Please model this.
Amino acid sequence: MNQIDRPITNPIVVLREESDDWAILFNPDTANAVGINPVGVAVWKMIDGKRRIKDIVLEIKASFKNASESAFEEISSFVDTLAKHNYVGYELKTTTIVE
Amino acid sequence: MLMNTPRTVDIEVTTHCNLRCRYCYFFNNPAVDYRELPTDEWLKFFDELGSLGVMNVVLAGGEPFIRDDLPILLEGIIRNRMRFSFLSNGTLIDDKIADFIAGTHRCEYIQVSVDGSCAKIHDSCRGKGSFARAIRGIRTLQRHRINVAVRVTIHRNNVTDLENIAHFLLEELNIPSFGTNSAGYLGTCRLNAEDVMLNIQERQLAMTTLLHLAEKYPGRISATAGPLYEGKEWRRMEDARTQGAPIFSNGGRLTGCGCPSNKITVRADGAIIPCAMLAHDELGRINQDSLEGIWKKSPALTQLRNRHTIPLNKFKFCADCSYIPYCTGNCPGLAYTITGEINHPSPDACLRRFSEAGGIMS
Model:
């Protein structure tokens, strides 16, 4: 892998929080939007390019008492889906080429 | 549940227009102060919209393309991570602005008004030369691959041209779909009502023709008001009434408008209003009052949102009407213009009134 395992949100994406604690992630460049639940909102706010997925899972488990045993798989899958649709990205490692 | 903030904000960004259409809802409204704000006021407001997570801005007027500072305004919208659309007469759209808009990748659509299949009919209410310029504008947008939406306003001069209009728009111009409405009793139209508004027979003709055209071009002709909408809704209401069907989920109360739950409008002078059809109802001022505060706490807006709790059977206007269980009371804007009351059913879209005046459902 030449990508760093710390996801970072696409800065163009808007988190639109609604009154029921759900939210919409909206990409104004593509007009794509997706609804996310309160756990998804909490995860989104932790995707900052500094935390690894396992750091986020630990914090979610601490914040949501009913977090499931499979939280790591679920959150990883959630972040992968966001990455697939360009809501988040991963910073690439820089490689030095020695001739 | 009410959204935290509006998803869409309609902005009448100018009071100027290069046309003087005979049924324009915008001009000749005595409640409106026809004054417009400078660029920096709008840019400041766009910053507020961005901070609230507003997703779409619809720029209207007047004619929005008349503003020289349009690229600067659009940059303000883009900077605040929003998308935009336009309601336009199409006549001022040229390659330069179309190229700019296409380059932003943020344009949802540009709606251009086309009211006839030829200049003679379109220009009869919009002014000489407006058809040619509107079509040139549409072709320019198409060349730049910008999504074009067309709105046809039906009036006395084009009601017999509807088949030609559909053919022209869908088969010659290759517009994916178009929307329809009819000249409504608002603004300038009130001054020309006799000449432009459909009478009962013309309304019936428009309904019949549009229902036929909607079948001929499936999914390509739409309406949220006007003859096509009424043709579909009234047929559904009549079927329900004759079959003694249970009350519709939105029937029997003033449920006719959901707009105040997801969008809000700003007049050119910066007054925040519920919608363009209720231009007199000032809720506050941009850059002076918090939009979020107005959205959540305005008593007038709350009252409008609670309109759906008012039963139709309390109105003398609806007394003994057998359509009540299937009726929504329709547009509060037209209800206000015609009766002077927002919390009243709109007489304009009343099926019983249409039937009593000699109208027959096809």
Strands of chain B lie at 8-12, 56-60, 83-88, 107-113, 148-154, 178-182, 221-222, 263-266, 271-273, 284-285. The interface with chain A takes residues 1-5, 7, 53, 55, 78, 81-83, 105-106, 108 of chain B (CB under 8 Å).
